[in-house]
């Protein structure tokens, strides 16, 4: 019932969560000065595509969505089973426009993009097709806010983008070798929430890491695999792990 009421509250314009990141005890250094210029100018985007399930009506479309900072989102129907987002540029433009409206018409100088739901064979397509659309979307919004073509082009080229693929469909699992490494809140011998693995089982050529963000209620918990397609924004890889 609580879950249903949270959805009802959102639909009536209420707020379920405070957008300010808080932490108790020893705060992650990345959030220690949330008012710093590095943090203020970052727009966080998340994107995924949901495909029709087996047994759906023939040619039923897939649904692509992009969420941005402040929990706002855009959604489009697209070609059935197509993973690369077809109208990505227009959706990102909507997210940038809303972010800029809430920041006195200032445009973000850095974008942190989390991309869910793509297989390893599609990483190159995301980098070569979706990331350029983010730049074009910024140029499009810059012109909406009255920037000249030259200014808009410069903003498009100067913006720094970090793109990370978030993968859950994999077979990697971690376990503790003694009880002190087990999650004390569960009785299933899973590792503690917050486990980060970035050595030995990772790519020897690219930066990637596994993060177990929360407790697993049943069975063996599955860590999420984060793979950096490119990294340009002004936070270190270690800071981005903590922020995530």
From TrEMBL:
Protein name: Piwi domain-containing protein
Pfam families (UniProt xref): Piwi (PF02171)
PROSITE patterns from the UniProt entry: PIWI
Entry-linked InterPro entries: Piwi (IPR003165), RNaseH-like_sf (IPR012337), RNaseH_sf (IPR036397)
MF annotations from Gene Ontology: nucleic acid binding
SUPFAM superfamilies from the UniProt entry: Ribonuclease H-like
Chain ranges of the Piwi domain: 108-244
């Amino acid at each position: 019932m609580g879950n249903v009421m949270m959805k009802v509250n959102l639909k009536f314009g209420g707020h379920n969560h405070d957008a300010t990141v808080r932490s108790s005890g020893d705060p992650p250094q990345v959030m220690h000065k949330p008012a710093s210029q590095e943090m203020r100018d970052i727009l966080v985007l998340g994107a995924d595509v949901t495909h029709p399930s087996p047994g759906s009506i023939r040619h039923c479309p897939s649904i692509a969505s992009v969420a941005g900072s402040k929990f706002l989102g855009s959604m489009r129907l697209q070609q059935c089973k197509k993973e690369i987002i077809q109208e990505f540029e227009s959706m990102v433009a909507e997210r940038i426009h809303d972010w800029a409206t809430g920041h006195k018409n200032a445009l973000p100088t850095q974008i942190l993009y989390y991309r869910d739901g793509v297989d390893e064979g599609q990483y190159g397509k995301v980098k070569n097709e979706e990331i350029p659309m983010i730049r074009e979307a910024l140029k499009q919004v810059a012109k909406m806010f009255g920037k000249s073509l030259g200014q808009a082009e410069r903003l498009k080229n100067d913006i720094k983008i970090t793109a990370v693929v978030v993968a859950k469909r994999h077979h990697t699992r971690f376990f503790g070798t003694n009880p002190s490494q087990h999650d004390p809140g569960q009785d299933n011998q899973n590792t503690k929430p917050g486990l980060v693995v970035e050595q030995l089982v990772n790519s020897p050529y690219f930066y990637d890491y596994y993060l177990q963000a929360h407790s697993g209620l049943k069975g063996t918990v599955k860590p999420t695999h984060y793979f950096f397609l490119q990294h340009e924004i002004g936070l270190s890889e270690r800071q981005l792990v903590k922020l995530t």
